[in-house]
Amino acid sequence: MTDLAPDAPAPNRGRIFLRDLLKRRMVAIGLAILIVFVLLAALAPLLAPYAPGRLSVVNRLKPPSGVYWFGTDEFGRDIFSRMLYAGRLSLSVGAAVVVLSSLIGVTLGLLAGFFKRLDTPIARLIDAMMAFPDILLAIALVAALGPSLMTVIIALSIVYAPRLARIVRAATLVIRELPYVEAARAFGNSTARIMFRHVLPNIVSPITVQATFIFASAMLAEAGLSFLGLGVSPDIPTWGTMISSGRQYIGQADWMTYFPGLAIVLAVLSLQMVGDGLRDLLDPRLRKDL
Questions:
Q1: DSSP notation for 43-107
Q2: Span 270-280, mean pLDDT?
Q3: Pick the CATH number of 79-289 from 1.10.3720.10, 2.40.50.140, 1.10.540.10, 2.60.40.10
Q4: Largest CB tally within 10 Å, which of 175, 204, 219, 250?
């Protein structure tokens, strides 16, 4: 009687997925940039050489140097320190918008895709909201609710929720007709159990990809609202308000706009690169072409 060889350990799917993702150079670069931004934001109290609101009128409009790495603004505040704290706010707003818009969008998409009676009114609501440009709808909502951090998060969540709702609705319309869903109904599973146990897990991939794009769009929109004076309080450092305050000193103190502008570009670009990589890897049709 021969001894059977022990079973080989099952491959770690998470490790294989991460390996395949990092094989793409652009994704690896984007992920590295994003990690740097997250670490800088998380360690801002330890890395910032000065308090973000510390005034020093004597040192106003100082160019970048060994003392002030990114220079100072019109009030003598250290731009590097303010950028670190502004990054914390931008990343926090982006993450909060992703969570809240996902809750709204996934719920609406599941209801529209699973219940034919609700499909038409929800689909018309989604179409109506997506007919408006994102930034104009966000401006209108913030102007109606009043500028504040919570208002910006709520407004941007309402703006970007229809994107997820449309994707979830389209996927749910297909999945609800598949044989395993019919089998779950035949076994007496409740509608809620079928939606969250059998339908939702099969649409996590497109939700994840869209969430990365919403994250980038929310950060860009928050900077735009702050630039227009419709974001958070002016005394709170954000990349948008820093660019807004520096535009009147272009030609005299260009660093006031260059550094926050570069931070916005790199942060949004890194999220877009990661999102593109996730889309190519999770979409079977695109993955076949890689």
A1: THHHH-SS-TT---GGGTTPPS-SSSTT-B-TT--BHHHHHHHHHHHHHHHHHHHHHHHHHHHHH
A2: 81
A3: 1.10.3720.10
A4: 219
